[in-house]
Design a protein that fits this description.
By secondary structure, the chain is α/β, with parallel strands linked by helices. It is built from nine helices and seven strands; from the N terminus they run E-H-E-H-E-H-E-H-E-H-H-E-H-H-H-E. Strands 3-2-1-4-5-6-7 form a seven-stranded parallel beta sheet, with helices on both faces. Helix 1 runs parallel beside helix 2, helix 3 runs parallel beside helix 4 and helix 4 packs parallel to helix 6. The mean pLDDT is 92.
Length: 245
């Protein structure tokens, strides 16, 4: 049974990815930065998924907590997680604002949380994956990292960095049966977008040819597909899930 580690599992997309992987029979390691209670609630839901005859405790996820922009936290998270076959770098933050008024701290925080964490986590799992000659690394980027977005120069820079990082790492480890791919969501219906005003929501929908927001389940499906052993010839790819943006 493969083990998948999902960072930022307490968030809207992270939770749904975890549930999708649980349905597919993965052992799960759920990471959160601070909201352990939400991860524990998610873990209880996962224990109840599917009666495979081994009892719910056999499918109890491991929960790990840490700031993934810090090496010492990453080292501890990986030690607590144990061997990892699939790494899903989903954790991230936003600190939106126009560049003219953006604080240096807000730029640095986003780069550290969104990009540096991907570097540290990927580096932590890559050597064991090379030894076992198998691995899947799936990095959540954004359409902002491809097309840019006003008021998100820090976020777009981090997400664009993830794409370049992933394509480079994919070339380094392709011969070892390890794939590295990106998912670039557009506007997804989560708590973050549900707080938008009607005017802001209408403006956003006007940019989407499908005239609707995406569902977290649509991201989770692509993550599971890229993690599948049958997706072994897909690497260095960026899959947009954006309704045609």
């Amino acid at each position: 049974m493969r083990t998948a580690l999902i960072t930022g599992a307490s968030g809207g997309i992270g939770q749904v990815i975890a549930l999708e992987f649980a349905e597919r029979g993965y052992n799960l390691v759920l990471h959160c930065h601070k909201n352990k209670e939400k991860c524990e609630e998610l873990g209880d839901r996962i224990k109840g998924i599917g009666d495979r005859g081994e009892g719910p405790e056999a499918f109890k996820p491991v929960i790990v907590v840490g700031d993934l922009s810090k090496q010492e936290d990453v080292d501890r998270v990986i030690e607590e997680a144990g061997p990892v076959d699939v790494l899903i770098n989903n954790a991230g933050i936003t600190r939106d604002g126009l560049l003219m008024t953006m604080k240096e701290e807000d730029f640095d925080k986003v780069i550290e949380a969104d990009l540096k964490s991907v570097y540290l986590m990927s580096k932590a799992v890559i050597r064991p994956m090379i030894k076992q000659r198998y691995g899947r690394i799936i990095n959540l980027t954004s359409v902002s990292g491809i097309y840019g977005n006003a008021g998100q120069s820090n976020y777009a820079a981090a997400k664009a960095g993830i794409i370049g990082f992933s394509k480079s790492l994919a070339k380094e480890v392709a011969s070892r049966n390890i794939t590295v791919n990106c998912i670039a969501p557009g506007a997804i219906d989560t708590e973050m977008t549900q707080v938008l005003s009607d005017k802001a929501r209408d403006a956003l929908l006007s940019q989407i040819p499908m005239k609707r927001m995406g569902r977290p389940e649509e991201i989770a499906y692509i993550a599971a597909a890229l993690a599948d052993e049958r997706a072994s010839y897909i690497t260095g790819a960026v899959v947009e899930v954006s309704g045609g943006m």
